[in-house]
Amino acid sequence: MMDALLRALRPLSQPPTAPGWNHAQMVELLGDTPLRPAAVLMGFRDAEQLRLVFTVRTDHLSSHAGQVSFPGGRTDPADGDAVTTALRESEEEIGLDRALVTPLGYLDCFETISGFCITPVVARIAPEASYRPAPDEVAEVFEVPLAHFLEPANLKRYVMEYRGHRREMVEFERTGHRIWGATAAILLNLVQRMESA
């Protein structure tokens, strides 16, 4: 499965640039306003069965409270690139030692309702890595086998209304966790890239 994953990625030497693959939909919803750069870490635990790492955001946060997400956040001016942002944010949010993370490549950029253009950084996490969630940001860290997202029966599609527009959405469920929004869309991009690689 690792070979299929690697074939689906953009190489580290060719990071994706804005606009995101969903740009047309976001322009319809938000207008053509400048978006702030951000990055997330799609970290795969380096084990026999590839497992993706997710966080559950704490309930008291001002945005996306209680939602499942990848570790990550907005790009700081000092970061320099998306890999640095993803590694820094992962250290801050879940205590993941960046020395135990090996970046592998990128997925396509994704634009969000909250005004960000996210670069997903795909990486391998060493088996000995541990997580220490920052209690003010992260309520839980959990892992899900990649195979779960490759099973078509686990993908749910639905339509929601937003500011008078109909939006096609996707979500996945796993062990009581609802994975939706930007996180589910980024996962779908990975699945589609793996299927066509």
TrEMBL record:
Enumerate the UniProt keywords alphabetically: Hydrolase, Magnesium, Manganese, Metal-binding
Extract the PROSITE patterns matched here.
NUDIX
Gene3D superfamilies for the chain: Nucleoside Triphosphate Pyrophosphohydrolase
| Database matches in InterPro entries | CoAse, NUDIX_hydrolase-like_dom_sf, NUDIX_hydrolase_dom
Q: Does the keyword Manganese apply?
A: yes
**Cofactors demanded by this protein:** Mg(2+); Mn(2+)
Q: What is this protein called?
A: CoA pyrophosphatase
Q: Which organism is it from?
A: Dyella psychrodurans
